[in-house]
Amino acid sequence: MSGRGIKWARVYSLVDSMTRETPEDVNDAGAKDILEVLNLIKGGEEKISEVELKLDEMEKKMDSLLVQLEGLHKDNDGLAKESGQK
């Protein structure tokens, strides 16, 4: 978990405990709304993590394709030299 995720987890925990340990009027004053927003943020962070993983996978595939392309380029250069020598 990133440092940002740890901070949000701590804030989430504090607000969650506020909603359980405070009188109802305080809950109505905004703690539940804050908790709802934090839940949305947490969901957003999970989506960001998924996107980052997909980007990492795509980067690996791109690297693999680049290696293949470089190999084809070398093969093409080799064939051009061979045909030029004939």
Please outline what is shown here:
The chain has 86 residues and is mainly alpha-helical. The chain has 2 helices and no strands. It has one domain (3-85).
Describe the fold and architecture.
- The chain has 86 residues and is mainly alpha-helical.
- The protein has one domain (3-85).
- 94% of the residues lie in helices and 0% in strands.
- The chain contains two helices and no strands.
- The longest helix has 62 residues, at 24-85.
- The radius of gyration is 27 Å and the shape is rod-shaped.
- The mean pLDDT is 78.
- Residues 41-75 form a coiled coil.
List the helices and strands and how they pair.
Layout: H1 3-21, H2 24-85
Coiled coil: 41-75
Keywords: Coiled coil
Number of domains: 1
Write down how many β-strands occur, each being a DSSP E stretch of 2 or more residues.
0
Q: Look at the helices and sheets and give the structural class.
A: mainly alpha
Helix content: over 70%
Overall mean pLDDT stands at: 78
Question: Helical element count?
Answer: 2
Approximate strand percentage: under 5%
Rounded radius of gyration (Å): 27 Å
